[in-house]
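Quick one: structure for this chain?
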Amino acid sequence: METAATNLDSKLARRAARGGKKRKRKSKKKIGLPAPVVFWLVAPIGAAGVVMPVIDEVGWVWLTGSAIIVQIIILRLNDGRGFIRSREMRRAYEARRHFSILEVIVLFLLIMADMLAMAYAL
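Got it. Here's what it folds into:
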C-alpha cells in the first residue's frame, strides 16, 4: 500500500517539476466586422466619389479613384472569406459575414458611377 502512495507522490512530483510549459490555447474570438457595417462604411465613400468631382472641381478626382480601389478591395474580400474570420460555422444569431446580392449590386453600380464621374471631371 505504501508503494502505491509513494509511486503516486513521485508521479505528482515529476509532473509538478516539468509543468513549466503550458499549452497555447487558440482564442475563439471572431475577428472582423459584420457585413452590413462594412457596407455602410464603404457605400458613402463611393457616393462621395461620385458627387464631389461633379459638383466641386477636378481636385476631387483622387477621392473618386481611391473610392473605386476601396470598393474593389471590399468586394474581393467579400467574395473570398467574408468579413468575420472564424473556424466555426455561422450561427443563426450571429451577424452576416458576406454581402447580400442587393448590396453587391449597389457597390457595382457605385463603381460604375465613380468611373463615369471621373471621366466627366477629367
